[in-house]
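Hi team,

Filling in the usual template for the complex we talked about on Friday. All components are listed, including any nucleic acid strands or ligand strings, so the model treats them as one assembly.

SUBMITTER: L.P.
PURPOSE: interface mapping
COMPONENTS: three
RESIDUES: 925
SEQUENCES:
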Amino acid sequence: MKATATVPALSFRSRLPSFRHFATFLGVVIVGAAILIAIFAPYLTPHDPFAQNLNLRMIPPVWMDESMPEHLLGTDQLGRDYLSRLIYGARISLLIGVLTVVTSGLIGITLGIIGGFYGGRTDQFVMFLITCRLSIPLILVALTVVALVGSSLAVVILTLGLLLWDRFAVVARTTTMQVRNLDYIAAAQAAGASRIHILLREVLPNIANHLVVVATLEMALAILLEAALSFLGLGVPPPLPSWGLMIAEAKEYMFFSPWVIMTPGIALFVLVLGINLLGDGLRDLLKAGSRQ
Amino acid sequence: MTSFLLRRLWLAILVCLTVLVVSFILTRLSGDLAVSIAGPNASAADIAIIRKNFGLDRPLVVQFLDWAGHAARGDLGQSYLYHAPVWDLIRDRLPVTLTLGLTGLAIALSIGLPLGILAAMREGSAVDRGIMLVALFGQAMPGFWLGLILIVWFGLELQWLPISGVDTWQGYIMPGVVLAFSAIPALMRLTRSGMIDALAADYIRTARAKGLSRSKIVLKHALRNAAMPVVSIAAVQLGFMLGGSVVTESVFALPGVGYLAWESITKNDFPVVQAVVLFLAVIYIALTLLADMMNALLDPRLR
Amino acid sequence: MTASTPEPVLSVAGLRVSFRQTEAVRGVSLAVGRGETHCVVGESGCGKSISALSVMNLLPRGAIRTADHIRFQGQDLLKLSETQFARLRGDKIAMIFQEPMTSLNPAYTIGSQMSEVFERHRRATRRQAMDRAAELLARVGITAPGMRLGQYPHQLSGGLRQRVMIAMALMCDPELLIADEPTTALDVTVQAQILRLLQKLQQELGLALLLITHDFGVVARMAQRVSVMYAGEVIESGTAADLFAAPTHPYTRGLLECIPVPGQVAPGERLGSIPGAVPRIAPGFVGCGFRERCALATPECARAVPKRAAGGDHSYLCRLQPDWKRDAAA
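RESULT (copied from the run log):
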């Protein structure tokens, strides 16, 4: 007699308390804006983010004295327009976020589904792998890899992708275990479907909604980690306008011109906040949908 | 209970061994270690000498077994840079990192726990939502950026706290706050959900039927049962804080283990890097084991 | 109630509770005298547990309670603040619940949970409270009470746990004990023991006992007075003798006919049952809640239902005359 517990299906037609509505809406707006900015960056930037002008170094933003109107947010220590670099930075953050999540998602979801579906020794092994991964100090390992292999966008994405799969694995595993005993799985097996087919076409679609929530949260984490790595000099290499790198470069001048560390930091904070709001909103939708 | 702990211990040892392998492989990623050590200006002869001196010409498996054997006995090798035993270096810097971690944990607990309990008691109210908002903000905050802002504001503008170093205990406050920021959201959420579950339990209804005071019900009856997941996550967060100390220590220039690791990475001092990764992993594993033991103490049913 | 009977320990009139768009309790009135057992009996969902919780003011958040009065020893409980009420709970009014497994805190010893009531209400010391706890454990028939005090709930069986719950409820010598289905979750043999215990204690202590149950067997054994509830209303009430001798409301009759009596039911014969389920009453509902399942329902039942007397204290809520079954049987 198969169990009839259910993994709740995502339903968008549920009623949420209005505060949550607003928070999720804000998240959608922020993330949407970031995506648009990233895509249309070349059309939005007033200047070339890489163009240096050593005569115009450290110009303050418009709301302070001695500013220049054509550099709304001022310039950095090499005379590059801050606003343009900020806008292009969105590209880097989002690119890293998405590609890292794709990589770590592939690894984590595969491990989690296999462990959750087959159980027994296989599952124990998957749990063991997860424990090992959790024991490793994340930032140190990432720093070491980048230091040894070389600093580039691809290396950062790959490193983070190979490290951030644990939450995917855990969630995929638990949801797969819930789904495993449901009737339609038994029906598929009885109909002679191959294991791969069952995993891909029966299990995966039904746990996908939970994984989307994890994906948003992991994306936020990846963006923060890349910023930390770049800040320490072992992330995205200059002259790429990573927000973390911009903060590191600004650190030299922060006692004289504090504003230089503010803008990229605020950008990071707002983007990560938006992604988290979106993820929380999705999670609430899941819960509300399951009550029906 | 002893069988449970023995199994956990056995698992912990296996994980340690795996991390040993991982940290070894980590430092061999660049291919030829001798080249990295020698630096860009070395000649082929220099590289050959280095290779011989550090035993890098032996097969990889031999190198690994050598390293593993020594590590098991507590000998973590010799630092290229300082020409001193790695263990000594770690040991000297450990107090700073430990103090930092514990400070961060203390701050996180003293803010996260009460707020989580409050949010649970006022579930669904504006207070609850406000507190959850604080958690959200903490999650989105880049730690290193917060550190810089604190330095500028409290160190420079207000001049209340030292901007770097740990000559005085005040030097631990700002970095402690930065670390706490990373742990508070998880602690708050878990305390809140644990308390909500505990408050919905039947034995709380019994406690109310006995006419006990509100504070007694929440603090004695509910909290005790909500405490277990909180203990686990506190241990895990401490582990993360210690493992992630590298960022905070570099921002505030604190002479801790994280900073040591950071220096070693940038200066290609690989024995140190290898050893620190292993060391931090062992600490994390020990912390989770400790948390399991504490949970066994807290829940009489597990004994 | 005649003029010579003393004032009841508990008197509830016109209790109404609405909760999440449902009228869970719609005008319940009852009274429990000193040394008397009043059983409230009905199917799950009829509102009997909610009524009990209302007396103790232990309703879940979001429940709205109104009543003409809820009087305990002459004092109107409706007028009390939560702090004042908390002083009564555990002291003068005690309550025991259905699931002894989960009603005790797994993290603390029996002794600790029992003594805290006494310490709270009597300002006693730990020592005094523990002594009293041991005394009560012995009273409820638990051997080696000293050892039991140091044990944890998970180390005791269900029956023992319920005894502990009873002992705990008696710590401060309450005047009124409310028992919400105390034996439902227990084995049949243990049920009988617990009921016997309750009876004995009641006689010894002169307790007023409000006993909630769905089991007529319990009613037959324990009750002096009975209130039968359906869909939030007391549809029949009276002394136990009257009710069993002459059940008048179609629902009560139906319930009693459901009970198979050995010797009176032939093999293969269908057991009596009442088709359907207890309805959820939405606000604004008028008429008899039982009409959907009643074989004798007429359109008249959709209007206000009169309260009729079937003799003495025996009353019921139905349009039918008291002697309708005589006509029906004919």
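MY TAKE: The two ends of chain B are 5 Å apart (CA to CA). The longest helix of chain B spans residues 86-121.

Thanks, L.
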